[in-house]
Amino acid sequence: MSAASTNSKLDEKSYILEGQRGSLDGSPDSMEADTKQLVQSTSDDELARSGLLSASFNYINSIIGSGVIGIPYALHQAGFGLGLLLLILVAVVTDYSLILMVRSGHLSGAYSYQGITEAAFGRGGFILLSFLQFCYPFIAMVSYNVVVGDTVTKVFMRLFHLESTSIMAQRWMVIGLATIFLTIPLCLYRDIVKLAKISFLSLLFVCLILITILIRLFTLRDSVPSTPDAFRFANWDIIPAIGIMSFAFMCHHNTFLIYGSIENASQKKWDRVTHASLFASFVVSAMFGIAGYATFTGLSQGDLLENYCWDDDLMNVSRLMFSGTILLTYPIECLVTREVVITTFFPRDKEMGNEQAAWYRHIAITLAIVTVTYFLSMSTDCLGVVLELNGVLAAVPLAFVLPAICYLKLEQGSIFSRQKLPAVGLALFGLIVAGVGLAILVMNFSDLDTCSHGKGLDYCFKNKSSAILPNMVAD
């Protein structure tokens, strides 16, 4: 899931979950009023209009997040050449789907994702979108725990010279401590607008991590053993690779907030901002993918930072930055999942307002969500598997299928008209990827857990200038 701009991520995640389906006139004033329904402390200046450059920055910031760390693994699965072509394809179809969403907003007068879905398919569309909006951040929370468990343990071992058998070097303990002392208190906090104000650091951290990866491309590449057919053009795992890429480019939950932030917003301006933002995001993602894959080729893991040696202090700094970024994103994702549950099953809580809402239900739902994600994250240490799962089950339907079929339903004319044919292709692309991807995950379920946290890396032992911690054992 990508990190949002200073306030847009939190506001939109409140906005897309609003259950008021009666005020869908699409005017800027009504859009801001809907946004404030869940985040009462949001001030007018936080929803101020911005120029195209500022909107593009917010756009890019909402796309580029934790998903980019899995792009090298996606290139490994699909093949280097085909993987880059697929990355271009995913960027292009994402660009088109985002443009379709705003077109659907103009057609229906419903300027929210839930609004256009319900305008097209009624209550059933509303429920389906709510389910997907629950699944996407929920699985993302699991992936955040996996990353914390995989990376922070390495930093602890390096800083405190811990043995691999030490309790503080165990994933369950590290994730548990982060959950108890950081994520639960933040997730229980209802008004987390102030937390979102520092989320702009996410993009800065991602850029710094990219710099360290580029540095290690030149300093570590010769120490990593080459793998057979490392730069083969194509491999067979195309669908899982598309799932990971779709997760990396997923930003559709921010669409209408960013659109509403543009001064004198129009379809033409939106198209320009979308093209520029998706191109910039593609460049950054491609740099992550190429640099990471060129360094480790066939050894690339779902979490690229897992490939670097445990005593690599430069990459340990990157691990800390990455972990800090996702730990601050975790409570915002929890807000979405909790609000979906409350809006769907306890709508009267929302009607009563924050002051009168059942506080015990708020606490119970929050603790249940956090606890379940904790135990699910213990079931695997393979980030790639979690990214594939989220991409196939949630990101692909949210990014490709629903925007396309909503537009097809709302736009007048034959489904086979020239105007609608690209949307038909987008819908078929999403359905095929989601269907085949789900089938592959089911068939290969017993073989999914193919990586293992904490294993020593042979090239770290062999490279004397970057020897792994002496108390670790090589595979």
UniProtKB/TrEMBL annotation:
Membrane topology: Multi-pass membrane protein
GO CC annotation, single: membrane
Region (Disordered): 1-38
Subcellular location: Membrane
Location, primary (coarse class): membrane
Transmembrane region(s): 57-75, 81-103, 124-147, 167-188, 200-218, 238-259, 279-300, 320-346, 358-377, 389-410, 422-443
This protein's UniProt keywords: Amino-acid transport, Membrane, Transmembrane, Transmembrane helix, Transport
Every Amino acid transporter transmembrane domain range: 50-441
Highest taxon of the lineage: Eukaryota
PANTHER family for the chain: AMINO ACID TRANSPORTER, SODIUM-COUPLED NEUTRAL AMINO ACID TRANSPORTER 11-RELATED
Biological function: Putative sodium-dependent amino acid/proton antiporter.
Family: Belongs to the amino acid/polyamine transporter 2 family.
Name this protein carries in UniProt: Putative sodium-coupled neutral amino acid transporter 11
